[in-house]
User: Fold this.
Amino acid sequence: MLMTRGIVIAGNESALFSAIETEAARRVEQYALALIPDRLSGEAEKRAVQPRQEGGGAAIPLEWNPGSPISARALVLAAENRLAHIDEAILVCDPPSARCAAADLSLADVEVLVNDHVKGWFFLVKELAAVFRSQGKGTLVLVYPETGGTGGKDDAADFLGAAALAVFRSLTRSILDTVFNESYLAMGFSGTDTGDEAGFAAYIFKQLEEGSRRSNGKLYKYGKLGFFR
Assistant:
């Protein structure tokens, strides 16, 4: 039986994002979806994304310009209006890779990565935290892989995607370390096994549905390293 809790999922298209959306569709009648636009140049790595499996839930797409604080506020207001309330916000950072020599970095891609995959998370977290604090409840969920798209030993370095992922990882730890006096909860999830995104997504929702205040501030690691903070 599908539940009625309000879930917002935000991030860029990736296998991990798709797996998390699939799990949400199996559990709720409706959920809100905010995708980071694909504005990187053709040099950025395009990863294959599996289509969402049908599970009964209906996605409500929301417009989002991540580099704009005004857009972050509008996104949260739209989610509240469409879902009635936000119970869980799941932020999924799995940025695309852009492999090249340092001298060949595209200035346009640098701007896109900073605006969409760095600044956007700070703006959205700020707005979600304000809503959760105002309503006195809610769960902020931050999800990322331990490493981004992997290349061969002879491939150029991934300057952009790796940098965006490192910032999100730092943001997650900062939030988890400071959430204990808040009225809402925050949980972090990192995955170490590339190729098991469906298992990772199922594990995330299992923890959300079984969790309590004791889950607040915890970083769960899924994969070969075990499940611990």
